[in-house]
Specification:
29% helix; binds pyridoxal-5'-phosphate; 8-stranded parallel β-barrel; alpha/beta; 9-stranded mixed beta sheet; 24% strand; Lyase, Ornithine Decarboxylase, Chain A, domain 1; TIM Barrel; 12 helices
C-alpha cells in the first residue's frame, strides 16, 4: 500500500503518484499475451509522457508510439532505440517529418495521401528512404466515448481501404518510400472485443490483397485502446485480446505492434489533492480542494468517472458532494454527487486511475503551476518532476515586459 499521507507531507499537494511496479505488471501481462509471435509493445507516450515513465518502459524493452516530434525526442532521451519508435498523427509538419526520417525511426505512420506526398518529397530532398505504414480507417464503431472514438469515417483519422491500397502501390513504386507496416487504431477505452476483431479482419484482408500484388508488409500494427476499469466496466483480458487478433492473421507471418497507453499507466496513477474547505449552497454540498481541472481534465472534458478515496480522521455518515477546484469555471470538478464523509481542512482525497491522460492534459490555466510527479517503485518513492513555480510560468514572458 502506498502511504499517500506521507507522500503529501513530503512533496506537497496537488501531487501525482505513479506505481511503477503496477506498470511493470501490466506491460508483462500484455507482452506475455502475444508470446509465440514476434511482437513489439510500443508504449503510447501521450498517455503519460514523463521521461522517467518512458524510461521505465524502455528498460523493459518497450518501443514508443509518438504523436509529435516532441514525443519522439522524449522517447530517444528515455533510451528507446530508433528501431522501436513510430510516429503517428493526422497532421505532421515538414520539420517533424524531416527529423523523423533523419533519426531513422522504425516507420512514419501516414494518415493521408497528401501526407504521403510530403513524406516522399522530404525523403527525396534528404536522399533517403522513409519507412512508412498507412493508418487504415476500417469504419468500425468501437462503442466508446465519441471523443475517443477514432475508427469511423466521420473521425479525422486514417484513410479508407481503397485509398490505403492506392497509397501502398504508390509507395512501393517510389525510390524514397518503403512500405513496411499497416496500422489501425479504432478508439480508446475499448471494452468490447468484437469491433477490434472486425477491424483486424478487415485490415488483415487488405494485407492479403497487397500480397497478391507483391507488396509484403512486416508489421501489423493494431494500435492501442485496450480499456481499463475506472468504475464497474468489464474489461478485455489481454490474452483474449491477443487471441482475437492472432485469429485473424492466419498464414500471415507478421510482427505484431501494439500501442497501449491507458492500459499500461492509468491504474498506476493517483492524483492527491488536499481539502481546503466544505461549503453548502442551499441544499448542495461542495468540497473545495487544491487540485483543479488544469491538473486533471478528464472529468471536465469527458465527464469521466474516477474513483475517489477520502483520507480523514473524521467520522460520520457519507453524504453526496460535488468535488470542485479553485479554477473559475463551473466545469472545474472532479466528481458530482459523490458520497463522502464529513471532511476537514487538510484532509486528503486520492483520485484514482489518474496515470493516463492526467498530467499530460494539464495546463497553466489561472496561472497555476503544474503538480509535482512522484514514482513509487519497490516501496521507495522518488520525485520525477518538480512542482512548477511562478518563475517557471512567466519565464518566457518576463523579458517582454516594458516599463
Ligand atoms: C492515443 C493512441 C494510442 C493509445 O491509446 P490508449 O487508449 O491510451 O491505449 C495508440 N495509438 C495511437 C495512434 C493513438 O493515437
Amino acid at each position: 500500500m502506498i502511504d499517500f499521507k506521507k507522500l503529501a507531507q513530503e512533496y506537497g499537494t496537488p501531487l501525482y503518484v505513479y506505481d511503477f511496479d503496477y506498470m511493470t505488471q501490466q506491460y508483462e501481462e500484455l507482452k506475455e499475451a502475444f508470446r509465440g509471435r514476434k511482437s513489439i509493445i510500443a508504449y503510447a507516450v501521450k498517455a503519460n509522457s514523463n521521461l522517467s515513465v518512458v524510461r521505465h518502459f524502455a528498460k523493459m524493452g518497450s518501443g514508443a508510439d509518438c504523436v509529435s516530434i516532441g514525443e519522439v525526442r522524449r522517447a530517444f532521451l528515455a533510451g528507446i532505440p530508433a528501431y522501436k519508435i513510430i510516429f503517428s498523427g493526422v497532421g505532421k509538419s515538414d520539420d517533424e517529418i524531416r527529423e523523423a526520417i533523419e533519426r531513422d525511426i522504425l516507420y512514419i505512420n501516414v494518415e493521408s495521401e497528401a501526407e504521403l506526398d510530403r513524406v516522399e518529397l522530404i525523403a527525396k530532398e534528404l536522399g533517403k528512404v522513409s519507412r512508412i505504414s498507412v493508418r487504415v480507417n476500417p469504419n468500425i464503431d468501437p462503442k466508446t466515448h465519441p471523443y475517443i472514438s477514432t475508427g469511423l469515417h466521420d473521425n479525422k483519422f486514417g484513410v479508407d481501404l481503397d485509398s490505403a491500397k492506392r497509397m501502398y502501390i504508390r509507395a512501393n513504386n517510389s525510390k524514397h518510400l518503403d512500405p513496411v507496416g499497416i496500422h489501425f487504431h479504432i478508439g480508446s477505452q475499448l471494452t468490447e472485443l468484437d469491433p477490434i476483431r472486425e477491424a483486424s479482419e478487415i485490415v488483415a484482408d487488405l494485407v492479403r490483397s497487397l500480397q497478391a500484388v507483391d507488396i509484403e508488409l512486416k508489421f501489423f500494427d493494431i494500435g492501442g485502446g485496450l480499456g481499463i476499469k475506472y468504475d464497474n466496466e468489464i474489461t478485455i483480458k489481454p490474452y483474449d485480446y491477443a487471441q482475437a487478433i492472432l485469429g485473424t492473421l492466419t498464414a500471415l507471418d507478421m510482427t505484431i505492434l501494439c500501442e497501449p497507453g491507458r492500459f499500461l499507466t492509468a491504474n498506476a496513477g493517483y492524483f492527491i489533492t488536499k481539502v481546503l474547505y466544505e461549503k453548502q449552497n442551499g441544499v448542495k454540498r461542495f468540497v473545495v480542494v487544491d487540485g483543479a481541472m488544469n491538473d486533471l481534465l478528464r472529468p471536465s472534458l469527458y465527464n469521466a468517472y474516477h474513483e475517489i478515496e477520502a483520507i480523514t480522521e473524521s467520522e460520520g455518515a457519507l453524504r453526496e458532494a460535488d468535488i470542485v477546484g479553485p479554477v473559475c469555471e463551473s466545469g472545474d470538478f472532479f466528481a458530482k454527487d459523490y458520497k463522502l464523509p464529513p471532511l476537514k481542512h487538510n484532509d486528503l482525497l486520492v483520485i484514482k486511475s489518474a496515470g493516463a491522460y492526467g498530467f499530460g492534459m494539464g495546463s497553466n490555466y489561472n496561472t497555476r503551476g503544474r503538480s509535482a510527479e512522484v514514482a513509487v517503485e519497490g516501496g521507495e518513492a522518488r520525485l520525477i518532476r518538480k512542482r512548477e513555480s511562478f518563475d517557471d510560468l512567466i519565464a518566457l514572458e518576463k523579458e517582454f515586459l516594458e516599463n
